[in-house]
Amino acid sequence: MTKEDIIKFINANLVCHLATTEGDQPHVRGMMAYRADEKGIIFHTGNLKDLFKQVCDNPLVEACFFDPNTNTQVRVKGKAVIIYDDNLKREIVAARPFLKPWVEELGLDLIVTFRITDCRACVWTFGTNFAPKEYVKISD
């Protein structure tokens, strides 16, 4: 897959698993990325969540996106950095109405947006199961 193919794949399969660490303990959770582009992958969480604390302590993360129709998996490793953009937060809340009650109660600062930067993606299929890993740079 090319860089463009991978970005398109991620945007078509936003549900992913995100891996972080807490000390020497790995943590993986299912979540939904917001979007991907040539700048990286945007996701959000709440500032009260363990995920927020873990990423602040160690911003190196890996996300795994999967398409069950093709049995294709794309793993992306990179560094999560906070995006300070209230307009983006409002856009996310508008697109994800389940966030609205929490934001109304606790304020927009509850939402923290991150961009995974310096993304390196590795594509896996049954056909490439035993092939050496090849990484494609999809963002700076």
Structure description:
The protein has 140 residues and is an alpha+beta fold. The chain has a single domain, classed as Roll (Pnp Oxidase, Chain A). Helix content is 25%, strand content 45%. It contains four helices and eight strands. Strands 1, 2, 3, 4, 5, 6, 7 and 8 form an eight-stranded antiparallel β-sheet that branches. Strand 1 and strand 2 form a beta hairpin. The mean pLDDT is 96.
Number of strands: 8
Number of helices: 4
The biggest sheet, with number of strands, parallel, antiparallel or mixed sense and barrel status, is: 8 strands, antiparallel
CATH class category: Mainly Beta
Strand fraction:
over 45%
Strand-and-helix sequence, N→C?
HEEEEHEEHHEE
Level-2 CATH architecture: Roll
Poorly predicted runs of 5 or more residues: none
Distance between the termini: 18 Å
Helix percent reads 25-40%
Q: Describe the global form.
A: globular
Rg, alpha carbons:
15 Å
Question: Could you report the average pLDDT, rounded to the nearest whole number?
Answer: 96
- The domain count comes to 1
Estimated structural class: alpha+beta
CATH superfamily: Electron Transport, Fmn-binding Protein, Chain A
Classify the fold: give the CATH topology.
Pnp Oxidase, Chain A
